[in-house]
Amino acid sequence: MAKTPKSTLPKPGENPGRVIDIDVSREMSDSYLEYAYSVIYSRAIPDARDGLKPVQRRILHQMNEMNLRPEKGHVKCSRVVGDVMGKLHPHGDGAIYDALVRMAQSFSMRLPLIDGHGNFGSLDAGPAAMRYTESRLAAPAMAMVNEAEENTVDFGPNYDGQLSEPLVLPAAFPNLLVNGATGIAVGMATNMAPHNLGEVIAATKHLIDNPKATLKALMKFIPGPDFPTGGHIVELAGVEEAYATGKGAFKVRATTTIEKVTSRKQGIVITELPYTIGPEKIVEKIADLVKGKKLQGISDIVDLSDGQQGTRVVLEIKNGFEPEDILEKLYKLTPMEDQFSINAVALVNGKPQTMNLKDLLQVFIDHRIEVVRRRSEFRKEKAEKRLNLVEGLIKAIVDIDKVIKIVRGSEDANEAKAALIKQFKLSDEQATYILDMPLRRLTKMSKLELDTESKELKAAIAALKKILGSEEEIKKLISEELTSLAKEHATPRKTKILA
Q1: Cβ proximity of 233 and 251 under 8 Å
Q2: Can you give the pTM of this predicted structure?
Q3: Residue 235 has what pLDDT?
């Protein structure tokens, strides 16, 4: 095989269509690495800071740009998908719609970020086509996207360089832990369980106050995952291992009760199933076991599950059989007991990393400290600019007649500006602002109102300087904001833990 030339690019004047010999093994290696890199960073692995994959982040950002807020009306999902695909995510519309649907499913996300209207599917069936469904941002999503316009996060160019998009969202709560994540990349995968928002926030606040907190201390606040479908976690050893090392497995059981289903017969009623397991799958498996005579004692199966009342599968037990014995066999032979494996891989500073519970919380805290610092700096600069203008207006409003006389007597704007600067000792910015203001607004201004605004701005600037002057103040503010979020969005734990 011929050696690779030192330069594969044609020189000026040479035929660009000439054939160049290359080393196939090197080309395959380079191309594969580029593909693997793209899958890891651009598709499959979430960022540890906001807990989102690029497609999810682009959907939320674009919906915010489209002003699809919780108080606004729903719009067709096809419109959202089209905007995301055309402006930010140049991949198939199916992948975008799948990601949008998942963020709207209450049985997939512990805290759904999208408010869906229409058929968004179930554990056993897919959603309706995007032309039939509608969506808008859910209230918790606003905590993810708010403040992005206040220079809190870095933006980068979109795929064609014509627009910009956030490289990470401000994320006011630890979304990666709350909603979990799944993804298969090249040579690695991630699978993270959802958790209870209130518990995660409590643990985050504890770690802010106690940076050296142990895993045992954090697990007092987060005893284990909290699946949106409920169920029971069996044994904590696997959970503890996952929280300590980033990898671990544990079993989740269905929630059942033993009731009288007829006047003479008892039955097993299934009301909650392990995460991602649908009732149709359970009914089909039990029916197959009964037909194959691998499971005895069940005379009838009735699936009463629906979108309003949730899961409810009734198993009628034959007389002479103990429901408890049949239930144990069901756990053993069907997905009514399922294993959930945690593999906590996320991007940290652009690199995939396996993270334990404390790492996950600390990355969020560090991110949030940076967001609050940048937000406070932005707000301080904005307030200082406004205060400068208000102070110029206060100087001018004292003798508004002279201002009008100067403006009328000047041949052009430059002459008027120079005269105002000299007469009232204004800065160039203050004089320009006064000249640009319509006369009717200037004459209606009250010195008392301007003095009040000046005092408010000075107080706000002082408060922001205090925040920026101490990381402890920033952490205190983060804790207060987390407390407010918990009060607004936290719900009771759904998954019980059997120690």
Answers
A1: yes
A2: 0.89
A3: 83
